[in-house]
Write a structure and sequence with these properties.
The chain is an alpha/beta fold. The longest helix has 15 residues. The chain is built from 8 helices and 8 strands. α3 crosses α7.
């Protein structure tokens, strides 16, 4: 059987709603591809659809604002990379909405995330070695002692925010984040 080509769902101008079956939510993930396209993948069916300019998702009787996905691809990439580097998780709707509205640059984004209650709770008590280890492990998927040492040495003369910004530009970290289907947003 020939594989069906993915759909490109472009809402265009105005306000558009993507209708989702509540029963399929556990198998849906939203990714950002290397070329900064937003893709919905269904792990149960193998379907992958690209979408843009869609502002809302209707799930059963609930409607969720997903207008943040209409942000520039680079901004979504930055938000997702920061959550991956610091927390090793997909950004999720609350972080995407919050940071898309507030972060006008990568530096501002990193400052906002590092000052968030989630970062304060999980990262503020770590010494520089521990922070570098968390960042390297999340960035590369392994705890590379040499890279941790370089990151720790960097922190002797720079801020944690500067290290996170550097990690967002470090090609092996970006490649790891985009491995598989892409950089997971939801």
């Amino acid at each position: 059987m020939e594989k069906e080509e993915p759909y490109v769902l472009d809402g265009g101008d105005g306000s558009d709603t993507l209708w989702l079956d509540p029963a399929s939510l556990t198998t849906l993930k939203v990714f950002l591809t290397q070329d900064l396209q937003t893709v919905v993948a269904n792990s149960a069916t193998g379907e992958r659809d690209t979408f843009s300019s869609i502002e809302k998702a209707a799930i059963g009787d609930n409607t969720v604002d997903i207008g943040f996905l209409a942000q520039g691809g680079q901004q979504l990439k930055n938000i997702a990379l920061v959550d991956k580097l610091l927390f090793n998780k997909a950004a999720g709707i609350p972080d995407l909405i919050n940071y898309a509205a507030q972060a006008t640059s990568a530096q501002t984004l990193v400052e906002k995330v590092l000052s968030s209650s989630a970062a304060q709770q999980s990262l503020s008590t770590l010494d520089n070695h521990q922070f570098a280890s968390v960042l390297v492990n999340n960035a590369l998927g392994v705890n590379d002692a040499q890279v941790v040492k370089v990151a720790e040495d960097f922190l002797n003369g720079h801020s944690r925010g500067e290290l996170v910004l550097l990690g967002m530009q470090y090609e092996p970290a970006v490649q790891h984040a985009f491995a598989g289907d892409g950089l997971q947003l939801l």
